[in-house]
Design goal:
The complex is a heterodimer of chains A (116) and B (116). By secondary structure, chain A is an all-beta fold. Chain A contains no helices and 12 strands. In chain A, a hairpin with an 8-residue loop joins strand 10 and strand 11. With 116 residues, chain B is mainly β. Chain B is built from no helices and 11 strands. In chain B, the strands form 2 sheets. In chain B, strands 2, 4, 5, 6, 9, 10 and 11 form a 7-stranded mixed sheet that branches. A 4-stranded antiparallel sheet of chain B has the order 1-3-8-7, with no helix packed on it. The N and C termini of chain B lie far apart (31 Å). Classes of the chains: A mainly beta (116), B mainly beta (116). The interface between A and B is medium-sized, with 26 and 31 residues.
């Protein structure tokens, strides 16, 4: 079974500052990793994913994440945030071998609040 | 627009009512999911349908009843709900699973359900 821990429930930051949203996971098998974003009153939208290859993954809206297998982490970063990045961000894992039919296991989410 | 459409977007129902949530996707996916998103709790997987067969039921109360008549449509039938069932219900779809074939899930915008 897999689990995901997002250490920060809320992250306030000023516009144009850098931000890092932390995600750690646990799993007995290899996993795929995802970050989703949810804007108010919307569903979830994929930001980026790690399946294999380079551990640094670039996504939409200037976000990137780095897979660190030894630390079982997949932290999300952006060098300069905008007001429009205010949203809730979810880290998720999926069993690479399809043992759970590809079900995504989500963290509790981190609310990013960008202030002017 | 993710290609997954949910209706209605908002629903208020009494505890004795019967209603249904609808989800539709035309992405060529044949796995569909219902998730429940409550305040202060992680996204909870409720039901998974793969190739129109239900493959997982995470001990969801019987007052929630899913139906998947074909690979493009998914319903969640609701009856005699409780106030604690008030939440955002999200539908998602994904491609068939298999080694190396994992893809991300695409989410609808959700139905905001309020039980009074």
């Amino acid at each position: 079974a897999q689990s995901v821990t997002q250490l920060d429930s809320q992250v306030p930051v000023f516009e144009e500052a850098p931000v890092e949203l932390r995600c750690n996971y646990s799993s007995s098998v290899s996993v795929y990793l995802f970050w989703y974003v949810q804007y108010p009153n919307q569903g979830l939208q994929l930001l980026l994913k790690y399946l294999s290859g380079s551990t640094l993954v670039k996504g939409i809206n200037g976000f990137e994440a780095e897979f660190n297998k030894s630390q079982t982490s997949f932290h999300l970063r952006k060098p300069s945030v905008h007001i429009s990045d205010t949203a809730e961000y979810f880290c998720a894992v999926s069993d690479m071998y399809g043992g759970s039919q590809g079900n995504l296991i989500f963290g509790k989410g981190t609310k990013l609040s960008v202030k002017p | 627009e993710t290609g997954v459409t949910q209706t209605p977007r908002h629903l208020v129902m009494g505890m004795t009512n019967k209603k249904s949530l609808k989800c539709e996707q035309h992405l060529g996916h044949n796995a569909m999911y219902w998730y429940k998103q409550s305040a202060k709790k992680p996204l909870e997987l409720m039901f998974v349908y793969s190739l129109e067969e239900r493959v997982e039921n995470n001990s969801v109360p019987s007052r929630f009843s899913p139906e998947c008549p074909n690979s493009s449509h998914l319903f969640l039938h609701l009856h005699t709900l409780q106030p604690e069932d008030s939440a955002l219900y999200l539908c998602a779809s994904s491609s068939p699973r298999g080694p190396g074939m994992n893809t991300e899930a695409f989410f609808g915008q959700g139905t905001r359900l309020t039980v009074v």
